[in-house]
Specification:
Layout: H1 12-21, H2 37-58, H3 63-77, E1 81-82, E2 88-90, H4 91-96, H5 103-107, E3 111-112, E4 116-118, H6 123-133, E5 141-150, E6 162-171, H7 177-191, E7 196-202, E8 206-213, E9 216-223, E10 238-244, H8 245-253, E11 267-268, E12 271-272
Parallel strand pairs: 1-5
Antiparallel strand pairs: 2-4, 3-4, 5-6, 6-10, 7-8, 8-9, 9-10, 11-12
Helix pairs in contact: 1-2
The structure holds adenosine-5'-triphosphate, ligand 9VF and magnesium ion (MG).
Length: about 280
Amino acid sequence: PQAKSKKTDFTPLQKNRILSLLGPGEMISFAKEKRSFAELESTLTLQRKKDIREMYEDSRENLLGKLERTITEFLVDMGFLEVKSPILIPFEYMERMGVGEDKKLSEQIFRVGDNMCLRPMLAPGLYNHLRKFDNVLPDPVRIFEIGPCYRKESDGNSHLEEFTMLNFCQMGSNCTRDELEYLIKELLDFLGIEFEIVADSCMVYGDTIDVMHKKMELSSAVVGPVPMDMDWGVNKPWIGAGFGLERLLKAKHDFKNIKRAARSESYYNGISINL
Ligand code: ATP
Ligand code: 9VF
Ligand code: MG
């Protein structure tokens, strides 16, 4: 016997529109859905407007901005100096980082004019600060930067072309693997994000310690020194770790796509604003 109300057939475009309107934790079964596209769209639109108004009443804080402030306060309390270095950097810096040898990363760089590029990582600025502060700050020198980085990417769910990196590092005494793992654990416990540490390697630094949340890399961390340090005038042991803030948000809020956590004109705090 024929069912009284038949399930709705959605076009691919309609499915994408509905999926974009779901709240971060929400799910839908298109196979069972009986409401029309128009009905469903207007219900979800109303809910999302309510969500945004609630955010306005409750805090008015942007998740990405808030995470930067939270991590900054945590690391400053731990004795790390907050630095802000240029985002537009000489392309020569990247050659000096050895990205020439890493074909993948060298093709991912956004070049600007003949000599400049958008930084794909924070390491050059941090190297320069470590060198300059070596004879200024007490041992061990502890610094960090949080800010935009740019890489041409093709893969979608955990990659953005414009993302926000945290890189903290320590130079001088006590630059051990244990100290590095301790700092990573303190930070991620403080943020309430579960993680697992695995061994990996990359062209730039050789062996790395990768910090994973399920299948997603949250961070690559390195125990120096490495041969490249000489080209940056750095001659002491160091440890450091680079984290993507949008990946931390994706893990924390269980976003299905990292776009919900990105600098965006489509989502605010993980909620669609195409309402
Ligand atoms: P992947 O292998 O996932 O492309 P990666 O190893 O090239 O990342 P790293 O150079 O180790 O990335 O950068 C440090 C951290 O910055 C990564 O662990 C990740 O959290 C973040 N990150 C790197 N690239 C991106 C990107 N395109 N979008 C969002 N976050 C990124
Ligand atoms: C680990 C990820 C070379 C002494 C200034 C600090 C680190 C971070 C690896 C990052 C990268 N390195 N995106 O270096 O902390 O550079 O590939 Si420093
Ligand atoms: Mg990595």
